[in-house]
Write a structure and sequence with these properties.
This protein is an alpha/beta fold. Helix content is about 35%, strand content about 20%.
Amino acid sequence: MTDPRNDAIVLRGARQNNLRNLDLDIPTGELVVVTGVSGSGKSSLVFDTLYAEGQRRYVETFSPYARQFLDRMDKPAVDRIEGIPPAIAIDQTNPVRTSRSTVGTMTELNDHLKLLFARCSQLHCERCAAPVREDTPAGIREDLLQRAAAAGDPRLLVCFEVKVPKNFKEAEVLALLDRQGYTRVRRVERGLLEVVQDRLRAGSADPARLGEAIEAALRGGRGRLLVHALAPTASIASTPDTADQTPEVIASWRWSTGLHCAACDIEYRKPTPGAFSFNSPTGACAHCRGFGRTIGVDYGLVIPDTAKTLREGAVKPWQTPSFRECQQDLERLARKRGMPLDVPWRDLTDAQREWVIEGEGEWARNTWYGVKRYFAWLETKAYKMHIRVLLSKYRAYTPCTHCDGARLATPSLLWRLGDAPLADAALDERPRFRPRGVQWSDEALAALPGLCVHDLMLLPLERARDFFDRLRLPGRLDEATQLLVAEIRSRYAFLCEVGLGYLTLDRQSRTLSGGEVQRINLTTALGTSLVNTLFVLDEPSIGLHPRDMQRVIGVMHRLRDAGNSLLVVEHDPQIMQQADRLLDLGPGAGEHGGRIVAWGRPEEVLATPGSLTADYLTGRRTVRLPPPRRAAGEAEDHGWLEVIGASQHNLRDIDVRLPLRRLVCITGVSGSGKSTLLQDVLHPALLKHLGRPSEAAGAHRGLRGAESITDVVSVDQAAIGRTARSNPASYVGAFDVLRERFAKLPEARQRGWTAGTFSFNSGTGRCPTCSGSGFEHVEMQFLSDVYLRCGDCNGTRYRTETLEVTHPGPDGRSASIADVLAMTVTEALHFFADIPELAVRLAPLVDVGLDYLRLGQPVPTLSGGEAQRLKLAGHLADSAQATAKTAAGKPTTGKLFLFDEPTTGLHFEDIARLLGAFRKLLDAGHSLVVIEHNLDVIRAAEWIVDLGPEGGDAGGQVVAVGTPAQIEKIPASHTGRALLEYRRTLASQARRGTMTQVAEPAMAVRTAAASAASVPRNITVRNAREHNLRGIDVDIPRDAFTVITGVSGSGKSTLAFDILFNEGQRRYLESLNAYARQFVQPASRPEVDSIRGIPPTVAIEQRTSRGGRKSTVATLTEIYHFLRLLYMKLGTQHCPDCDARIEPQSPDLIAVRILEQFRGKTVDLLAPLVVARKGLYTDLAKWAAAKGYRELRVDGERLPVKPWPRLDRFREHSIELPVARLGISARGEADLRAKLTEALQHGKGVVQVLATGSRVPIVYSTRRACPSCGTSFAEPDPRMFSFNSKQGWCTGCFGTGLQLEGFDAEQSGEEAAWNERQDGEAAVCGRCDGERLNPVARAVRFRDRSIGRLTCESVTQVRKRLTGLKLDRREQAIGRDLLQEIGTRLGFLERVGLGYLSLDRAAPTLSGGEAQRIRLAAQLGSNLRGVCYVLDEPTIGLHPRDNRILLDALEELARHRNTLVVVEHDEDTIRRADHVIDLGPGAGVRGGRIVGEGRIEDLLANPGSITGRYLRAPLRHPLKPRRPIAASTPSLTIEGATLHNLHGLDIRIPLGRLISVTGVSGSGKSTLARDVLFASVRNLVGGEARAVGCRAISGIEHIDRVLEVDQTPIGKTPRSCPATYVGIWDDIRRIFAGTTEARLRGHDAGRFSFNTAGGRCPACEGQGVQTVEMSFLPDVKLVCDSCAGQRFDSDTLGVTYGGRSIGEVLAMNIEDAAEAFRPHAALHHVLSLLCDVGLGYLTLGQQSPTLSGGEAQRIKLVTELAKVRVDLRAPLRTRPKHTLYVLDEPTVGLHMADVEKLVRVLHRLVDAGNTVVLVEHNLDLIAQSDWVIDMGPEAGDGGGKQIAAKTPQALAKHPGRSHTGRALRDFLEDRWETTLQESHDGP
């Protein structure tokens, strides 16, 4: 069914950022590299457009609740995108910057390890290092026997110890023991009594006696036991009084049942996962709180210059005016104590220095407090911002001395995993980590088995991987532990595969490079094993040495070959060579880019003229190296910077010399120690030397030559600014020059303007409307925010008067300040050629290739490479200033610039410009040290330091140093070999003009045919064992329509949902962060060997809930969310009283209205600060206090701002600022106006006036007021249009639109009582006329229609109305995305046949079919491609006519390269499928096998397929002669039915017959059968003389009772089961309680209940399973160990009936139970009914959540039938009560074979003298009916009429307008049993 033309992502009109309306078709299943110069639009295309749309569409398939946690991307600016698969971004950003974030937390290995340690680790005593285990009485007995035998079987004293409580005396305790029979106490010592339990010889004692003694002693000793071995002649004292009678003890042995070291008497806590997490308070070190470091004061920064004396200001922080008093105290008290004030600090004695630092004591007049107490005092004031800033200058970050950097508390480090040989192999001669506080000897530590958590944190990942690969845990692993170990092994393996084996789990994530972060994220993608997914990568080559590049290329090829699409932003030639296609964007950057320069296969791109990328790859261009400045030896002239003995991380005590004023490149393979040397050692060491705050420098012995540099600067690609106010001109200082220039113009001086007037950040010259931003920011909540050009200044940022001042330029031109900001750098240099100072500022921008930028371009719009070059330009500008000072006679020294991978994101062309900028910095006298792998930069370096030779443990050494030419000659250097190969490649390219391999042999690029052939085309499931599946192997074709069918309970839903859907969604969710996954709880891994080829999945399941009383079609489809936003942004507000349009009003007019309305009253002026928002608002209270206000009004109550009470953070609060309390009079008008101005300022144009004694304030607004009556209104808010919010709902109906008795503001409308079918139709609310909203909300109109009136229209009408809208420019900018979202949803509702529904149609009034199709429309409207949709019986509730509409939509979905897996029994659906899987042959334990598979023809030819058999030989009709219906047949007659859409119907219902009510979905079937017939008969039979929804019902005297069998689920917990639901479990419990054995034991029926304590298993509380909480992983349910899943304790299971325990009876299937309980008639009757409806395979105790929909439905039916107590097989002797049964679609979830069983049961029920009325679409059941009432002809307002009332045969012969008749005619064409003739067509 797949169209080959659909194998591409179709992009049309992409306009995101600088993209120029790109049209592009990107083939799926390929590796596509996007390249181009920096700023050309690569990230805009790949991330902001394609990834954003693919991620957004898939996330939209989640529930609204889940979506709020999933960071849904903004909708990109693009005309359309088709065929995009779900997208996953593998980027370089690490959102967490705290030092608590490590490689372990990032990869979630820490989370897995803490779970594994909590389950499988072994505790060792902190004192003796011996293993600590929980002893059991049996284990103690075995150990005791062995010890006693080894000691010669001496006499033993079995003792326990009793502590004497403080409130007891020893004599009292001894007396108590004596009364319990304990007369022998061995000793009494310090309140401890050693009581003798027994005296015996272990070898000869009765085993029962020994066991009883041990158990009794453990009970007496509270889990602790002491056994003494006595000397052969010893005797035992009876009292403790005489010491000489104490027996001689030759040995003492201790045991305990808890985690207690008996030898050392130390008790330990049981392990929990939190105990092994430094982010948990139970595991974190209490001193450093899990950071591993402590924050203190670095006294080296406090006294940075040791050459200064105390008098000269050695103590730096006391040299400011703020703390000059401390300096004076120091000098005054130093003179008194004789301390030298004029001796340099370095020459003071240790005692003198200690006196200065430590002081003498606490603060006092003549006591020196010391520097230390000064900082302690500052810490108490740290809540003040300026104090925090001051402290930050002197902070020291040192390893925690309480945990030695392990982050964990000592008890957590006592647990170990693995054995000694495994630990020795992993550590490789490293010492084991010694926790603080343990008393282990070095020998004991070295002999300890396994590793503690911190040992694993310090291991390189490669060694840790080997450790876990060889780890063998003792005993049989349960499912949860197997899952953990497998997950840990796979994560370690993936990390090593992408070249990160050198990292450790303890490495802080903020120290990782962007490339390392990306490769960590890449391992997550590898682990998901998804297909049909779009993976987006940003520069995966970052941080990789050319030697390591093939690793990442191999990983990307694996992802591609699995059937995924890869979009890679990259500039590395090796990766470009391996791409299937290249896309070159350009030709320039910024507004000069955003176009396609070249696109195609690599060889096609290379031949494209005008492509810079092609020119560089073919050698037509090369990165020109700057000419050499000096010989290498001349570097000695400027000195060297030397790092001595660097040994941090994997550095091997190396000495590194770096020449100054040179370009130095530090390189080496990944993990060789480059970043450690530069970032962890050199940079912080230099900062310390310069007296700047920094973390502690990494381990090294010394630093030389630092005095030769004045500053150290680290230049990265981080964003420069976050607001649009930051721009290139201000960054390089050019804007200050421009403003000064404009301020000196004659016109500006004439007006008295200064440079500040020309600032858009402040001053009077900027536009007051947009505050100088140039645009209006429109927040769009769940859509992308919209930025509109300011209407007042038209985006210029300035007032009109400011723009009148213009600067003259060349050629007679002049420019305003706004015109200047719109100039490019080149244009500005030409325009201001006569201003040298400006040229100096702007020239660096030209030097770094940013001459195309506009001076006022917002910095956040720059790419990472452009931002980096802008920073370089800033430094170049500073250098130019410094050079000017030097020329003026002010000498200056150079800075040291540090760069880490500066070529990240840079094209070849950009690298050339970067090298030019480097040369300018060098020429200015600065030094550059660069970490780099780019061979062009390495070639350009003047000195190279090559680290290695490998990564991790095998690195950290200096392999080579020297110039590039010297490095090439060193064979051991990987860098040297790469340089040599690259030089040869460039020479070859220059000769041939074609691309040549770089550094490594490349893999062959696939052809399209090879690509298609290599990708598996099936979803392959192997050995599926979930639930009742019997190890089946399944191959489901992708991009096709597959139906899974089979009898009810055969395992269909298990295969489709528990395996396919759960696994596909789980794998996608693994790409999200752990925070998001805790809200979107992924399912557990299914019981299968493997699942391959699975794409991301979307489930569309059955849900019986159709929504609450406040749910409508618009809210269910989320159309209403977008309509609310549309009306808030574009609606026009009117006064609800005057109908006048709301307009602004002046503060003067507000003052006049207050004087008129409140004259003579006292009022409070309130400024609204918060309106209905959740939070604590502590900062708001601090702000108010700082402004001098004492109170805030919170939810109508005044609260003090000091102390501010803790608010309920989960409740919405409204907060106002009480500005003033005034008496309103003419005399106080001036005061009123002043306070009103203040209130309006704080309230942003809104003020509330509250009169004394009133609770409701009056609102006044300067922006929104009625010009007629003066009423003011608050700013519109989306909640104002929500009838689920008190801000929007009508106060008469609280948002329901109906007058519902008892419904109030506390009701949500979701309560079961409100969702049950109501008797009759409630009256429409009189206040809102059913529109659900308050008058203010209804008075907001868009195109003269309120939102309530708009939603009263049908889907089709609303779509046509919105399609025909004509919007102005502003409305188009705001409403474009809104209208597109609304239109898409409306269109899909029409496509599934629901165009007739009105948007305000209440959810409870929808039919089952309508509700199902609304859910389909919401899910399928996402327009994804490549996903697997899993649907659960989508045809439920659908008429055959509607079913065909749905199948057409599903087939179209499959044609768009989606996979459809549908669980279905419908014959039409099965026949339309591409592939059918038939499960069976039976249900439950008799099912779970594949009995047929293939196309429909294969199924028909398969004799073993039940489905095939019924399709070959369908059910013949009728099964038995039809019951005649004549005019005299007793009947019920419904007169004048008018409920919902019924049109005053008169309906006759013959009694004693099987009757089907049919019709298209929404035609009124359920309304007639359930809301009118059932409700009315229930009332009338119950004695109420009231019919519902009709005038009257006659013939009611024939009915004795009425029952409805609905579709509600039967239970949600494991305790609910068929036996409890149908009511037979109480009988079974009574049978067991009546057995002789139960009576002897005193067990009553309650003993045999698993819902109450007494007889149930205490471990699982009667559930039979125990839930293991796995934190971030799905919870795992394990069979209870104590009861083996039988739910009861051993005593209860000892009682048997018929040879079976109560637990074994629960495990019996219903067929066996019916035979076992045959003597009990009532039980046997119910069990037989269950067998009759095909449920004999179920077990009595099967958990309700595991039942399929069909099984639950039939159990409900049996429950109702059992209440009648009619033996349907017995002959009718006496006529039972006549019962009317109403069933709504009883065939839901039933296979064709099960439908036949149901038909026979229903016939027997009617034969027993009852009437059965069915609402049904199943044609088999309709054909078996005696009478058919067909409703229609259409749905909604087009239905509600009786089209036909006939026998099925008569309806099929003469269908007329009946859709049912036409479907029945085709259906019965070859299924009618001709031997059975119709006796009568009707009365």
